[in-house]
Amino acid sequence: MIFVIEHLDVLSKWILAEYKHSYEIAKNEKVDLLITGVKIEGLPSTEKRFYEIFNPENVIILDPQAEEELKPNDKAEAIIIGGILGDHPLRGRTKTLLSDIFPKAKKRNIGKLQFPIDGALYVAIQIMKGKRLSEIPIVFGLSIITNFKGLEEEIYLPFAYPLVNGSPLISEEVIKYLVGNRNYRLKWGGKEEEIEFNYQGQSFLSR
């Protein structure tokens, strides 16, 4: 099985950071990843669309609006994740841009919450490795808190994040895009994690 991100959005710095982090996750988890619909140097990617490579009848599309939950015993040639930046509230773009266009593809959800692309990939990998969705710790809502000229600033991300080693799985490049090189702390579910350093490229996979 291969995990596929079908690019369906503008190739912004934010979405590119999520793609890069997705590739790091795939390498760490020792699974195959392919980004379709756009060629990106340094990432496993192709301008071909997923349906030019795989028979849509043999894939699973991850869609928050799908009726069935993804389970470890689901069989498919590929799992398709929409390369779409999140909206709040959820607009159902995966359904519009993928599920409705390929009615013969299987549709599965990983819960009804909206994940970043890299988070959705991580959760899907864990499920296909044998975990049930209910066994994967997930938190909804993440705040990035910084101080700027003596004032505290908070950026709230209204999305779902899997917890890895007790911390939300989020791309450090995304955080840098949002707060620059300022020190920051993360706040979620009543917990806080203070980061006392500026960006040095450490991975949230190990924190």
From TrEMBL:
<dbReference type="InterPro" id="IPR038459">
    <property type="entry name" value="MT_TRM10-typ_sf"/>
</dbReference>
<dbReference type="Pfam" id="PF04252">
    <property type="entry name" value="SFM1-like"/>
</dbReference>
<dbReference type="InterPro" id="IPR007364">
    <property type="entry name" value="SFM1-like"/>
</dbReference>
<dbReference type="GO" id="GO:0035241">
    <property type="term" value="F:protein-arginine omega-N monomethyltransferase activity"/>
</dbReference>
<protein>
    <recommendedName>
        <fullName>SAM-dependent methyltransferase</fullName>
    </recommendedName>
</protein>
